[in-house]
Amino acid sequence: MKTLIIIREQDYEWLDHFFPGIHPLLVPICNKPFAEFLIDFSILAGSEAIRLVMDGPLSDVERYCENGNRWGIPISYASIKNTDDLQTVIDKNQRFCSEDRVLIISGFVFIQYDKQYNYKTIFASLPDGEILSSNRGSLRLRGSRTETQHDMGNIPLSLLGFDSIDVYYQLCMEILNDISSPYVLPGYSNEAYCHIGRNVVISKSAEIRKPVIIGNNVQILADSIIGPKAVIGSNVIIDRESSVIGSIVLENTYIGEHLEVQNKIASGNILIEPESGISIAMDDPHLLTGIHQSGSAKSLFQSIVHRLAAILLITLQLIPFLLLTPILILQGKWKKSTNSYFTAVSEKYLILTTTTIERTGPFSTLAAALSLDRFTLLFRVLIGQLAIIGSWPVVATPSSITEYSKTKSWYRAAVFSYAETEEWPVNTGDTAIIERYYAAHGNPMKDIALTIKALLNRIHETNTHP
Amino acid sequence: MTFHIDTSTGKKLGIAALIGRIDSKNSSELITSFALWQQQTSLFVFDCARLDFIDSSGLGAIVSCLRNAIEHNGDLKLANLSPKVSMVFEITKAKKLFSMFPDTGSAIQSFETNGTE
Amino acid sequence: MIISENTFNNITVIALQGTLDARNATQLKQFKSAAASTTSVVINLSEVDFLDSSGLGAIVSIARVKRAQGGDVILACMNNKVREVFEITQVYKLFDIYDDVEAATINAEKKHTSL
After folding, report:
1. pLDDT for the residue numbered A395
2. Which residues of chain B are modeled with pLDDT < 50?
């Protein structure tokens, strides 16, 4: 038997508001990523292979699960469109499904199972069709059964639709409290109700009250109280005299001194009250902050390289600029416009004056070919406001803000766009494709080569800005 | 921030409306304003209906206002706290220091029944 | 890069072998059945070990022309590296992608006959 897991963006979109930057399948439930529960269950049910299918981004979960070696089951991945119905999804994964029996888990649902049961024989004897369904998804079987019909009633399974932060919270608390431990949970536990990870430093005066799950690399400082009913993720610091009761602290979070976190969820700099769904983002070193792993050396190298390139380009363009610009201004072909643009940091805007040159006549064509319209922007690279090559700066308007917030992970406002290195882009969608590609595959040295390519491309281009 | 005196209960109550954010950048403004207001009365209600956000400095400023009021035999009560701001009070245990009311009217009324002087 | 053509279930299948990058993107765009605007094609990527943004550009441009004229480009059999590129750039949202060439041709044919 094989398992096909189908997860759609519309079902987990709500989660992004509370845990931005965490892939929905990697959201930890009692410190174990959601995807692992699905994998555990698939193995229990007798699957020989798993395919994960989504209409949204897969790379994070693919990076985590890889080819499934860790669990001893091959895992593969596929992308579908959000308009595909179930039959189309099966057709698109025809080679995977072939003639085998397939367990289809579809939707954003948590499967409540118990590892003590023999699901292998149960599933082998169930007829095909829908087995369980909930408001957010279903479990179904495709293909004929291999054993005689089992009594359909009372399969020890249920489905929990993940549709609100409160459901998530209640689920974690329930698993924490369940002594029968139906699931395999991470952490060392030599007593019931208490799992602790590696490299956990607990101050002598701190108190741990069961049930509690603590991840790896956690520091619990003096006079703190953890639990009862606390889940602490990895890389967390709970500062002195604070208490975490009935709450979940996700990884990379710092909880300040003298705080009382009760019936809450804290993730990085976001504090959530599960019952009401209210969340507040704060970056206050006395209260709550995210703990960030630094990538500073890489970005330092990048900014140095970009600035050197800008200096070089300024030197080369200086004389032509001084000679040609006055002529073009007199001819009326040098047009400036000033706008406010988004930057990679939210709430921070950049005011830029961009120039367009009308390519009519010998002087203006020459000026455009030499990319003199970008000359003034090069100085912004020197002060670190722009990169030399990256994404087209996006004009900040109330209507563009929602589109922009989806692009934040790869957006880097620059003088030139990666899209200018190629000839095929026809619209902003195409531009975004190339900008995303190089945001993932670029490096500072490649950026220089691409800038040169963009400059060369401008020489025979017919317009200066799409 | 706005401030006016309410005498509907027969006592002089300072009603201040806190607006926008009170954080490390502007929390000192609240403290200086409060010192001025204390020249007019020692009983206060902070109407937080339009208070969107506070951080630890903002909270510290409000708590120091409370302490100042009590030192002068007065009091400070809070009204209309948004759920978000309420959460900040809750985790810092500041919630226990204040009397909180769902609207300014009931906060004002509480001074009436409270019989201080 | 080697390009070969076949017909399966009445649908043209273009099979690519090698790397689809800036050097051979034009080669693909000029390939007869790729350039022909009305025929739907299935592009078999099983022997493509890597593609970059120009390669993507070639596939996107071909699809654009065909779709404007009622045809389509359907993709089959991506390996992990190719799938990764489609995913980071979000181009996967623009195409129907199958893990089997025959299934791709059956569905391409279904779409055709329903038009």
Report:
1. 85
2. 115-117
Among A261, A276, A282, the residue with its CB nearest the CB of B83 is A276
At position A323, the amino acid (one-letter code) is L
What residues in C contact A55, CB-CB < 8 Å?
93
Identify all chain B residues contacting A282, using CB atoms and an 8 Å cutoff: 55, 88
Chain B contact probe: residue of A255, A282, A287, A289 with most B CBs at under 10 A: A282
Q: Sort out which chain B residues have CB atoms less than 8 A from A244's CB and list them.
A: none
Whether omega before A211 lies within 30 degrees of 0, making that bond cis, reads: yes
Q: How do beta strands B13-22 and B43-54 pair?
A: parallel
Considering the domain delimited by B2-113, tell me its CATH architecture.
2-Layer Sandwich (3.30)
In a structure prediction context, what are the per-residue pLDDT tens digits for chain C, which is 115 residues long? Answer: 888 988 888 888 999 999 998 888 888 888 877 777 677 899 999 999 999 889 999 999 899 888 888 888 999 999 989 999 999 899 999 999 999 999 999 988 776 665 4
Rounded to whole angstroms, the Cα distance separating A189 from A198 reads 11
Backbone angles phi, psi at B10, to 5 degrees: 90, -15
User: What's the Cα-to-Cα distance from A455 to each of A50, A374, A385, C75, rounded to whole Å?
Assistant: 47, 10, 21, 34
Please list every residue in chain C whose beta carbon sits closer than 8 Å to the beta carbon of residue A99. none
A264 touches chain B (CB under 8 A): yes
Q: Work out the minimum CA distance from B40 to partner chain A, whole angstroms.
A: 34
Cβ–Cβ of C89/A434 closer than 8 Å?
Answer: yes
Domain ranges of chain B: 2-113
How far is the CA of A44 from the CAs of A168, A221, A304, A425, in angstroms? Answer: 23, 40, 53, 48
> Which pTM does this prediction carry?
0.86
ipTM rounded to 2 decimals: 0.91
Counting as low any pLDDT under 70, the low residues of chain A are 146-153, 190, 293-296, 346-347, 461-466
**Which of B:73-102 have CB within 8 Å of A?**
83-84, 87-88, 90-93
Q: How far apart are CA A224 and CA A211, in angstroms?
A: 16
pLDDT in tens, A51-63: 999 999 998 999 9
For residue A228, say if its preceding peptide bond is cis, omega within 30 degrees of 0: yes
